[in-house]
Each structure stands twice: as C-alpha cells, then as structure tokens.
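The following block was generated as part of the benchmark described in Methods. Ligand: zinc ion.
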Amino acid sequence: MVNVEKIRMVYLTSVEHSGSTLIACLLGGHPQVMTVGEFGTPFPKNGNCSCGAIYQDCAFWQKWAELAEQNSVPFELGNFDINILPDPAGGFWEDLFYYQFPLKIVDRIRDTLYLLLPQRNKAAQAKIDRSVRLAKILCDAAGASVFLDTTKNPLQAGFLAQHQQVDLKVICLVRDGRGVMNSLLTKERTYTPESAVDSWLWGIRNMERAQRHYVGSSQVYFLKLEELCQQPELKLTELLKFVGVEVDDVEFDYSQAKRHIVGNRMRHFFDGTIKKPDEAWRSELSKENLALFEAKAGRINRKYGY
Ligand SMILES: [Zn+2]
C-alpha cells in the first residue's frame, strides 16, 4: 500500500461578519501557517491582492500557478472551483446530497445511499481533491506545516474531514448573533432584519452539525470573537496550541507585502493589533430588531454565553 503523506489542514467555519479575516491575518503571520484566507471564494483577477499588487501581477499567485501546472493540477486564478455548495438549479436530489440533518445517523445513511450515485460524488470529490492538492503544493513550496482555509463553509469541513489525505482540525468561530445581525444590516444592503437573523441561525446550525457529525471533538476549537478581542494573548496561545504549531519564541511577520489573503478590507491593513470587540449593535439595533432576534435566536445565542 502506498503511504501518502497527509496534509495538516485547519478549516475555519463561521457565519459571515464574524471575524474570519482577522483569524486569517493573525495566524497567517506565523511562519508555519500557510493561508490565502478564503481559498474557496472567487475574486476578480484584476482586483487588489492584500500585498498591494493586482492579483494577476502578484508573484505569489503566479508562482502557485506555475507549480500547479508542473503538478498537473488545474489552476484558474480567481476561481479555483473548490467550494462545495449545492447547485441552486440542482433540484431535490442535489439538495438532499448536501443537506445537514439534525441527526448524525440520518446524515450517515444519506451518505451511504449516495455512494450509489457516483456521478454526484465524483463532482464533489474532484473539488475536494483539487483543494487538497493545491494546498499541499503551497505548503511544500513555503515549508509550512499547516494550511488554513477561512472560506467559512461548514459543508466543506464535512467533506474535508472524510478525505484520506487530510488531517483536519476545525475552528468554529462564533460572534454574538446581535453583532452579526447589526453588521449584516449596516454593511450589506441585501439583508432585511428577518433574513439577517435567519442567515446567522442557518450558519450556526450547519456549523454545529458539520463538526458534530464528521469531526471528532478533540479536532474542534470553538473560538468566541469577543474573547479573542478581550484576551488576545491568551486566546492566540490556545489557538496556536490547537493548530499544532510553535507557541514560544515565534517571530510573527505581519508585513503587508508577504500577505496574499482573500477576505474583507482588513487584509490590507492588519498589523498584528487586535482591537476591542465591536459592540455597535448595543446602540444601533432598534428595540424591534432586538425583539425579533430574541424571538428567533435568543436561545441559541445564550447557549454560547451571550
Ligand atoms: Zn499578493
């Protein structure tokens, strides 16, 4: 039997606007951690890389493309096509393939049944294989021991956990749902108060189910964004221990020129400083919106100590 060396991957799942770019920038400054942030999220080739160059002119992405070609791995800058999501036009069977059920046993029975439908599995597995091979190429080139993906998609964590060449750890990043609701309402124009709460609930639910059904509890770290902001040194140390990289005498490098991260605007400016938690929701959310949140999501928010 061929002994294939496993790649150590850390996958971050969270709802959007929960601080995933901060984690990518923070851990990405560690010499043993390689990350491009939201690895599975498409971006425009002519957009700005966090290093300051245009993506298509950036030497980092050019080198990665070259190495991918040498290893016969498809590489399309700006669209790696690795993110596992149901095709919106795929219909019932497509939705069933990706759905996260409340009970682990139901998810496992569904998985077994779908092994009988190789076409659907093949398409998903091809994406996961490509992501693993691309991550490995990058880690090998940089001499890094861990690849961090902050695409935030809980489905991806479930699929990666089942990949034979992946030694997976999962960071479940949680932020007070009221903070997420306020952030979605003030920064994303497409949300209504109802859809903002629903989006938070949907993300939390799938994050919990994916880790509970596919990832052992010792391989999961629940990180509350507010705790990281309040006790940065303590939480960063815990995080590094969990990831499995050096904790003592590490020289973090937060220079912009060495960062090639896909994520929000913070990726351009991060200098290693972790600010106090953003609690604007306390003054910005109306009484009606707070009542709506409480009715729909108060119980689950309290479960996380909020
Ligand atoms: Zn760059």
